[in-house]
Fold each of these.
Amino acid sequence: MATPSIPAGTGDSVTVPKDNRWVLLGIMLALLLSMLDGLIVGTAMPTVVAHLGGLDHMSWVVTGYTLATACSTPVWGKLGDLFNRKTVFLTSVALFIAASVLCGTAGSMTELIIFRIIQGLGAGGMGAGAFSLIGALLPPRERGKHQGMTAGVMAVGQLGGPLVGGFVTSHLSWQWAFYINVPVGVICIAWCWLLLRLPPAQRRAKATIDWLGIMFLTGAISALVLAATWAGSTYAWLSWQITGLAVLALTLLAAFIVTERRATEPLMPLRIYSRHRNFPIAAILLTASGITVFGATLYLPLYQQVVQGASAANSGLLLLPMMIATLITSSIAGKVMTATGRYKIFPVLGTLLMAVGMGLLSTMNTGTPRTLTSLYMVVLGAGTGLCMQMSSTIAQNAVELRDIGSASAATNLFRNLGGSIGIAIFASLFTGTVTARPTQTARGLIYIHDVAHATHLIFLTGACIGTAALIASVLIEEVPLRGKSAAAASAVPDAQTA
């Protein structure tokens, strides 16, 4: 059966403010806040453990947060579709701020884990809400001109997180790794409260919550994230624990699909996957991008520090070549897409560069100079810049505006799951290759070669994933992007005027 085309402006348009850059900047603060938090906390964790103890539970500070974020993302997205998007978004930011304060007051590792789970719930809403608001404010044809702003925020988050985390742990108390979220979050809430205005919309006669769908999807995501987190580290990949979690995830996913077919207001409408093939293809690209980006940002600095002797104090700056390339190519691609309406070439070229960049990084050894590593990083960064943001736009263009919250949450979920799965795979490869040495001298001589070989395997795996994404990107159908002049006959942008 042929895949139906999406005509330009099929009743999904909204009135775009004349100058929405200031509005978008406030929304972007939430994305920046979420990205900075994870990296700042990761940098500060050794200091946190030194004060609170509980080293054996430290991993749950990250796992609990990640799990709560992944599970809550689809729920927040659907709430935005059913009710007022602005209110739902600001509620998630307020929850994140409150949980950040609680984290700073934690007196034990157990309390910190509980508060981090609450913080993760807020983070899920900030990610889903930010992208759904962007989708509601900007039709896909207009979104390209602002694509560089999103890429810039992500670059600042990736670079600034470790630097701020290092400064906080060196000059302030560990509590400020969490308290620093408060002023940024308050500015975000005030900014969006005053400037964010969504267009008038039709009210839904009755909004029902898909509680059964929430239960099944939350269970499936939890099983998948736990399996990805524990595989290769806590338990072997083929152990009964990991196998059992995988079977449980598949069973709950099947139950979720059955539930969504019958639900009046499904949590994640299956029509967003079936309306056009571009949405599932974009989901594949976002998952692959998440895997490669997380892998690169985790293991490139490690390789440069251990093998090439770079300073750990400037670990955030080591990724600068990749981030600059991402920012430049994302901005250029967005402007070309807005001017011409053409976009298929960008994910195709982006996945190609991602595969080539990871392939080049896999050739590094103990003698590779830093200059050459930086050049390889530029290739990878250029690929992610062409692919990641463009994939989100393609996904949102493939659904109706009434489903923009669910679609945005789904794309954010795939990106995060890609990162979780990538971290699990790469961590397993790394720990399986870098073995403990009996003496410090032997470790000093051999450990460097072990790290170089481990990163070779990691980036080679990333190159294979990039190649698979390239094959998927070729299948994208270049349908017209919705513009701001299309009719709004069937659109349900929000539950009420904000």
Amino acid sequence: MTDATSAARWRAGILTAVLIAGGGGYWLGQSGQSDAPTEAGSGGRKILYYYDPMFPNQKFDKPGKSPFMDMQLEPKYADEGSGAAPGVSVDPAARQSLGIRVVAAEMGSLAATFDVNGSIDFNQRDVAIVQARSGGFVERVYRLAPGDVIGVGTPIADLQLPEWGSAQTEYLSVKKLEKPDLTAAARQRLRLMGMPEGVIAEVDRSGRTGGRMTVRAPIGGVVQTLNARAGVTLATGQTLAEISGLGTVWLNAALPEAQAGQVQVGQRATGKLTAFPGEAFVGRVVAILPTASADSRTLTVRVELANRGGRLRPGMFAVVALGGDTKPALLVPSEAVIRTGTRSIVMLEKGDGRYHPAEVVAGREGGGKTEILQGLAPGEKVVASGQFLLDSEASLTGLTVRPLEAAQ
């Protein structure tokens, strides 16, 4: 049979099914079928009706070819679905026609990683606030602006602090008394005023006072705010600049809440950025924020990355590979799991061409495999192709789904 002929017959079958559904039983009336029991088949088994396995909802009272597919109608026996070995029975010829494929559930390793989207942000734990330690005024501001990238020790502004000058003069006067206790107390007062050790040492060495000080960046990074302006009067504790470090950055990944249980603090994460194709940036999960987004139903996973050379810039987009370590799991092909919305079911092969539905609890998915957490034992055979037809037939015959607690 050519592919064109086969496709034409498939279309004809589907069209016929639609006409049956819309015709309010027209085909039933024309074929003269009945739900009444008919003659006994081979071996004395009573035949209830005949049916096409591809369209099990349609019943016929006589054998023959299916009006839907190019195949013989199958008999439905009265003793099917009851007795010692309940299940859906399919003979070998029909199994081949239906394309039924059976796979054994087996232990294996499921890829634990999955990809989510994220973006680079500043490390909010690496922030420096530059303030005036004493009242005074700004003499000079160096050529800086918000957004500039600066190194550690970069001068920001020159300040004139009159209170420092008077305190240094007092310290030198006490020092001349050559009383160690008083000298140590005066020196400690300079420290409490926020005077750096380098400035105090210079006063000790030169014997000269000076209230002038150059404020420098305590860390390298990006100037976020710059409030220092030449001639401005300063109050104690007034903020002159805010600097965000670039030695490390955060990669904030949007984790779907359904996968929240697969990520833990301390796990390895890998980010790939469109700006650097073919390069991977490896870090660790440092936090999983406690609040989920109401709009996207995602959690924010914070990954800390080393930023060598400052190449990673806040705002850059990244694809983040998250997940835990690979663990052994009982696996079946993902297409073998029938998800009804309220539970998951697989069709078990019971031998002698018989099949029976069983409820399972499905876990993670990856690489075309699904983890079975409960309801299935290693070595049990499940239907990986054609299972929906078998499930439909099982529903028609009223077969009871094997419960979870009855699994081997």
Amino acid sequence: MTTPSPPASGEQTISAHRPWIALLQGLVGSLLILAGSLGVGWIANGSPMIRNTLVIALRTDGTGVVVSTIALTLGAMILLRSWLRLGQRLSQWGAGSLKQVVLAVVLWGAPLFVAVPIFSRDVYAYTGQGRLMAENLNPYTTGISALSNWFMLGTDPSWAENRTPYGPLFLWLSRGVVAITGAQPDLSVLLFRLLACIGVALCVIYLPKLAEFCGYNGARALWISVANPLFLISFIASAHNDALMVGLAVCGTYFAATRKPILAIVMVTASIAVKPITIVLLPFIGLLWAGKAAGWGRRFACWGATVAISALLLWLAGIPHNLGFGWTWALLDGTPGYTGYSPSGFGGQLVGSAAHAVGLDGALFEGGFRTLLTVASIGIAGWLVLFGDPHKVVRRLALAFAAVVMLAPIIQPWYILWFLPFLAATGIKNNWQIKVCYVVIGFFVVFGAQDQLFVWNFVDLPMATKALSYWVAIAVVGYLLLIDVHTRKLLFTKGHELAPAASLK
């Protein structure tokens, strides 16, 4: 590996010492998102906020909706540019850079903490699941529609009959939130955001340490995976429980890497008990426990002990309320359908169309292709568990997690944030790898900004909000790629291989 090249110009040398400019610009972007969320974010029908004079003006008048849409989209794009520029200004990743990245997470995340939920309204479903628990109904067998007044509390109708895919720990946390707030939607959102911020804080604390342990710069890893706008919006503004899941997983992986196996298993099991997908990490936690020089006997012993301890903890978590292992349905019976931008979804459509064109059953081939990718993801993960460099177990973990996520039929925008911290901690190089990261994060920020906008049906608009958001975002992307003298270099300039942490200090 090579040391990063020095700045190419005097301007870059100076700008590397002025991260506060990017920090302030990002704060402006977050404040614009906050303002825009009042007009087009998700407010529960039963919320007192819906009767606020300012909110009424923004939501019932076409001008207010248009201004809110532009503010939200422009704010997200400014936050994207600020993140890119912060990386350029801290390009040497020297002493003090970690402090600046942490400051960015705090400054940019603070306005999002009090924003109306955007990009998703799953947070209202969490309240519904807490209410099911409070009424002694099992969320693994009963949908939210069993509750009175469930729709007024903001839950998406798609959750009406769905079983919860979350683990027992998160269900008990949801029950606790409902006990404190009485299911008041706005207060519940804030408490769920607080839980999400605990996950963000765990990432901020342990991800740099994990990166340093793996031989890479902790500040850069944190900038890539936590300070990016998709992470901040999805895990703070949207209040997704994935934030807590990822934070516990990163923390547990660090403990495993630093030879604290029992604590590591407890933390990763807690992550599974929030959202079961992190069960993928357990075999790698066992490998880290076994050690680099372990033979097959010790590996199997550590795998067995890891599974036994984790299973015991999950069993104990499921005893109250008779939850049992009801969460396993989410692993064994996935959500039907696919997303068109996932490799499985897009590729399946191509295969189905090609089969149909030659007179074959397109639907059969399409489904077969997606099943093949799902099986392939399991095979790749299994191979990475059994084989590979024993000195790079965390990297193998990251690649296995990425394979399971990326080859699944459904990929929500925030799903890439599940494995991105682990990839960042084990080295994303300053070549095509970081460029792919820029493109993927930029794509999902643009997609999220126009995909989840709430507008009353009776509001008369000169242009559909999705189209307006799309064109605002595309205009900014065009500016970043073609006009901005700083950001246009990011995709069209040859990068350099990422250096080990020691050479970046």
